[in-house]
Amino acid sequence: MASCNECKSFFSLEDDDSMGDCVRRIVDPRQAYYQAKPVEADNDSSNCASFQKK
Amino acid sequence: MATTAKEIKEFEEKQEWWWVAEKTRSSRLDYLRKAVWKKGALGGNYAPGIEIDLEFPELYTETWQENEGDPIMLRKAKSIGNVLENLPIFITDQSQIVGCVGSAPHNIVSYWQGASMINEEIYNEQGILPQPEEKSLERLAALNEYWGGNTALDELAKVLDPEDAVKFMSGAIGWGTPSSAVGYATKDFRHIGKGFENIIEEIDENMERTDKLLRGNPSPDLLPLYDKLPRWEAMQEVLDAAIEYAARYARLARIIAENFETDPKRKEELLRIAETCERVPAQPPRTLQESIQYDHFVQVVVRYETYEGAMPHRPDYLHGPFFDKDVNINKSITRDDALDLLGEHLIRTYEIGIFSPRWTREGLQGITGTWVWTMGGVNEDGTDACNDCTTAYMQVARLVRIANPTFSFRWHPKVKDELMREIFECIRHGLGYPSLRNDPILVENAMYWHGHPLREARQWVTQSCMSPCPPTKYGCQPFRMASATANCAKIVEYTLHNGYDNVVNMQMGPKTGNAVDFKTYDEFFEAWTKQMKWLLNILVRTVALGRAKDPEFFSRPILSAYYERAVETGTDAVDYTNGERGNAWVTAFTWVENADSLAAVKKLIYDDKKYTMAELIEALKNNWDGKEEMRLDFVNNAPKWGNDDDYVDDIMVQCLKTTAAHGKEIKCVCGNNIPILPENVSGNIHYANVVSALPNGRRLGDALYDGGISPGPGLDKKGPTAVLKSCGKIDHVLDGRAFLLNQRLSPTQLAGEKGYQLWKSYVKSWDDLGMDHVQFNMVDDSTLRAAQKDPEKYQEVIVRVAGYSAHFVDISRKTQDNIIQRTVQGLG
Amino acid sequence: MKCVACGFEGPVDKFRYLYNARIDASMSMRQCPKCNEWNAVDELKDEALEIVNPGDAPWGKSAGIEGISA
Ligand code: SF4
Questions:
Q1: pTM for the structure as a whole
Q2: Is the CB of residue B621 less than 8 Å from the CB of residue B740?
Q3: Atom in ligand 1 nearest the alpha carbon of residue A2
Q4: Ligand 1 centroid to A17 CA: how many Å?
Q5: C31: domain range?
Q6: What is the ipTM of this complex?
Q7: Inter-chain touch B88–A23, beta carbons under 8 Å
Q8: Where are the domains of chain B?
């Protein structure tokens, strides 16, 4: 089972590598931005369409 | 292709200021301005692509449910903490200021703890649910099921007097929510500016001291102390969460810089964002960027607590010293760099979007809230507080051209000519702002009505659109206006119909007698006075109870941490016993209809005896149908306010003085006075189908006058001096808290240097007559009609609606026509 | 009264009263119950005069010195 910490978008916290941010670039009809969403490192990513192996 | 100076000149000559702005602003501001989503409802609906944020209420509710046993403030603080620590955040390309309410740029938010009726409205709102809609409806249903019957307003409804509640909620006599769930609060920036870590330390000391007392000799004095501890804990919790929220931005900026960004200049900017967010709001700011970022975090974070629909604020005063240090003294950044920061400050504020129920959307068309920033004015010692940052805000406002926030300028005799020119340029460019406020008058007014000491009164900020409030330890006002908003045209309506409301079909006001039986105008006016008192009393009573119960039903941990007096006493900021002086007022919507209607009754019924009262009442009940000639007689042959005609002006002054006397009898929860403040936002449109036909000649359905003490559109036929003279008969200190005056000027007449000089002498007359407010629209009929015809081409045309500005194409046709029909005054 | 757009005829009060853009003019806007078009109506004569489209202002310009801005 793949998990978030194997994904290119995952950046772990410095003081706690069980947690991190999923950082993705999003381009909407008006602007481009980076979004960070807190995720757990061992979060099951098998259903995540944006998963990209590190 | 670069625009040439010649092309820009052509745009200027054609007064197409939006093109001038677009062609002259920096590429960063151009990108950011075009990138920001429009979050105000457009003619009642949200723009395509706008979505309600569901993660926010879910995170909030999850923690709320887990902490059922906690005292409300602590429970709420933990819920907000979960949101600040876990809601997705984002950084827009090219941006330097970060922080938004909502997890994506196109999101608007709402507060499920506030009001079930708003929650239900979201469920039924078309087009704002994230896709797939079915899944969103499930999520909403779960939220609504949990909160249904348990929101702050549900709790309040249980304690309100049932008759008062029905009348208050009828929508006929006033608006507003007697809860912090929808409101606005002054911020005590001198206290907040210490840095959140220092406030946390202060709270630590207070808790330690209290802890010691609680372990000492038992005494009844100790009992209230037990409740303070969890409140202090709650304040610390939210301050910590806010620091963590900023740290998350710092982390994201570093991740982007180190992993994604290839442009070295942008990398540097991202690292500066990271350093800034590591510094503020934990510590006091040191640079302009830190100062603006601090300010923005303060405003954003509090909007995770509640819908704050106004932004009492003095940014030039706050950021001026940093602007001067960075730009003029150390020269660490250029003036253009600084303009980019200030411009982005406006844009980031415009980006904040909060869901509004339909009745608010009609009353505040095209915007999220009335975010009126106060500029200029004086220092505590009376010296001129205007600075280079004031000038820079005026310049950058013309470059970014947004409708919210807008500026209110505290004019005083020492304001320099250079700055007045900048202000005039903003007005000439059609922004509709800044509005001018007469500082000496309003300082005196604040002392007269609420007893604010001189040095505090001199620091005033605009609490919402219009009312001044000192942002000081005991001056800060935590709860909307702490009183109410009255639909005042109902006073004369109920006088005519014995207190009965023919629109909502119920006995609303007191039975003051059948108007047919009133033998004299004085008897008629006596009934008017009773209806006026009843209206103010019922609204103030209801809101006062809501205010008193608010810490129990809603609670404000963040605002409490922002208030020195709350931090010191371990109380909720809204708790009226913690030393607040009181700064309440009643916003008087649809006020001038009273003067014009009373004058028409006096003239045509009692003086000239041209019609009987029975004939008038019959015509009004039939909405003037079949009585067009009679209606026109009431419009054209009875004196109208705004023409320097003592007949009607005396009536206006009599109405105001009678109401002001009552304003000294009724008291707010702090025991202070409650003056009225005539202004409308776009309540004149909202109430068009709520106020029945009136003796001034309007029908049910017609827009009411645009408000404050502005004459009826097109009825001020004697020119601007006559308008000023009428308005000058009002005592702007003793007769009320403030008086809004809309004036429309001709862009053609006021072109060039001659135009500036004409306007400046107008401002002098305005000051000579002792008036407290004026604001200007300066866009001609042909541009506005063309915008109605071809809205796509005129997206950037801005107009002054009332206490706020809006993009013309975002407001309803009725409001548009109402604005166009305002008289264009020729100066000189 | 007869709708200018679709010819529907009926008493004036069958046409929903919308609003009067100028309180001192006898011209108001009423909506045809059949085709929903906005008719400019002379209230003194109970007569529909024209259809009001975006940008139209059959009641004329605003008061004051608007003339010099045109
Ligand atoms: S949520 Fe998806 S995209 Fe984000 S880190 Fe996990 S697997 Fe990657």
A1: 0.95
A2: no
A3: 7
A4: 15
A5: 12-51
A6: 0.98
A7: no
A8: 482-548+587-740
